[in-house]
């Protein structure tokens, strides 16, 4: 049923036209852009391939979507899509992989250095025109613990080496265990976090990782350690993190992802000391990056080669 | 004239006792500590080795200092000592080397990432409880230009590689030219800075480097580039930097060193937009680090091996 020139539907609430233009630039002509449910309904008949962000998936089990064969998400996290019963089993589901390592690792080291060099103290001294030489700590010699050793975790490992850090890792598959100084399995969280100075979460959200960082794990961490979450909000039990930090445990929490996004205005994280809130921006899907990835996958699709970022719905990513 | 157990004088306005205790811990017993001119005068007779910070060098050409053979500075920069005519030619002068690369490079990357990821924007959004996802730029693909390729510059090169940056370098000796993608000689400043996004100064201060970053060099830089100075204040003509930045040229200046330190309360740098002032803290002489270096040199001295960090007074470092 594969056609040499498949009909492609791009869906995005605010960037559909821009993506469509970019994909056409790669030489694909049958490209439609939709930004609303109505537009999607209009273009779905005859569509074989979808590239989408926040797609109205309820449309996919209607007869108008019967020709859809492959659904490429514009994001890396597909916890919502993998468990979405609206998407028929025969539609191939793929996510973006290997695109975010560099970007997210820059975010992680921005905040690791911000914390360890005590930038707030330097900024305050400048504001007060006060000469304040002090000796900060260093990343060198400290231990980073990376939960999740996929392409993002691997890139964090690489940069951590250049800062002469000790590197621990925890992963479910154990596939990249040789990257780190010490590897821990998914039932070893409390041993894993015991000696580390920074816990970085890059795991996908699945049934097995939901609220995996709970009160017990947080209390097993050193009181002066810090946590950085660039995975998914619900990896952490946020209520328990709040309680643990209110008790004075942990030196910092850098949170780019939350159980509810956007983070509600009234949420205590916004004003909590030592909590750094950012707006799910550590690993943005840039149009050019996603388009390159999609076109590469499209060529694989046309040549009947295995697709990159294939989602195993049972596993959840 | 070398004795198996030379008399050692430690001088520091505020840390002499602490250093002396540390050196004695390495098994050297003839160690005296002085914090004032009077104490230095009292202990100088018979002293063979001096480890010092802010030493009253006028004492060194008096007869009480006639047994002094070797003067180890606690710092890396010795522009003041190298040109100090109070220090007799027969006294060996050494400085700390190879201790600051890791520390200073962490400072440099703290601010490179702070600028490129736009931490001020993220902080402001949090302060205003505002969800503000945005796509920052990345260090990856940007070009860093490092002036000075000694041990500090080399460590910055190493970390820049892990961030997938292009690395240009300028050095006077050209000895480590192979470290960088493009190397420039000391008469090529304007070509060197033309294409770079970040200029990092790690040069020693000598007659040849005084005000080497002047109006012409600054204007040859891209308007959206930034400068980081972790060398010595007078590498930059500060007045010309001020004028150039007031005209809207350069995206940022991160300054840890100044022509006058502490930076005077009334100096315009304190409140200038895009200028980040820190208090000469990027490469602190930690007691433990300096002591280790000194004891290692002391053993070389006793074994008549070449000393580390030997200062060539004509060259100026």
From TrEMBL, chains A, B:
<dbReference type="Pfam" id="PF02826">
    <property type="entry name" value="2-Hacid_dh_C"/>
</dbReference>
<feature type="domain" description="D-isomer specific 2-hydroxyacid dehydrogenase NAD-binding">
    <location>
        <begin position="110"/>
        <end position="282"/>
    </location>
</feature>
<protein>
    <submittedName>
        <fullName>Glyoxylate/hydroxypyruvate reductase A</fullName>
        <ecNumber>1.1.1.79</ecNumber>
        <ecNumber>1.1.1.81</ecNumber>
    </submittedName>
</protein>
<keyword id="KW-0520">NAD</keyword>
<dbReference type="GO" id="GO:0030267">
    <property type="term" value="F:glyoxylate reductase (NADPH) activity"/>
</dbReference>
<dbReference type="InterPro" id="IPR006140">
    <property type="entry name" value="D-isomer_DH_NAD-bd"/>
</dbReference>
<dbReference type="GO" id="GO:0016618">
    <property type="term" value="F:hydroxypyruvate reductase [NAD(P)H] activity"/>
</dbReference>
<dbReference type="InterPro" id="IPR036291">
    <property type="entry name" value="NAD(P)-bd_dom_sf"/>
</dbReference>
<keyword id="KW-0560">Oxidoreductase</keyword>
């Amino acid at each position: 049923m594969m056609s040499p020139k498949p009909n492609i539907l791009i869906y995005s609430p605010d960037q559909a036209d821009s993506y469509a233009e970019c994909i056409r630039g790669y030489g694909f002509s049958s490209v439609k852009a939709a930004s609303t449910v109505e537009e999607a309904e209009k273009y779905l008949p005859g569509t074989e391939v979808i590239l989408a962000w926040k797609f109205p998936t309820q449309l996919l089990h209607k007869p108008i979507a019967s020709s859809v064969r492959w659904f490429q998400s514009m994001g890396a996290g597909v916890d919502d899509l993998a468990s979405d019963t609206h998407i028929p089993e025969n539609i191939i589901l793929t996510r973006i992989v290997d695109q975010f390592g560099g970007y997210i690792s820059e975010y992680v080291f921005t905040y690791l250095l911000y914390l360890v060099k005590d930038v707030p103290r330097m900024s305050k001294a400048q504001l007060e025109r006060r000469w304040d030489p002090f000796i900060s700590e260093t990343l060198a010699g400290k231990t980073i613990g990376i939960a999740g050793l996929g392409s993002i975790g691997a890139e964090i490992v690489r940069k951590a080496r250049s800062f002469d850090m000790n590197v621990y890792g925890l992963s479910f598959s154990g596939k990249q265990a040789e990257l780190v100084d010490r590897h821990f399995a998914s039932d070893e969280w409390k041993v894993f976090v015991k000696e580390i100075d920074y816990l970085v979460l890059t795991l996908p959200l699945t049934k097995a990782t939901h609220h995996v960082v709970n009160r017990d794990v947080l209390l097993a961490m050193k009181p002066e350690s810090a946590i950085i979450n660039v995975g998914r909000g619900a990896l952490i039990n946020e209520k328990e993190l709040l309680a643990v930090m209110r008790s004075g445990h942990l030196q910092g929490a850098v949170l780019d992802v939350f159980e509810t996004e956007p983070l509600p205005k009234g949420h205590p994280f916004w004003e909590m000391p030592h909590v750094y809130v950012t707006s799910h921006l550590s690993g943005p899907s840039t149009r050019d990056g996603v388009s390159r990835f999609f076109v590469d996958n499209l060529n694989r699709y046309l040549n009947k080669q295995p697709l990159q970022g294939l989602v195993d719905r049972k596993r959840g990513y």
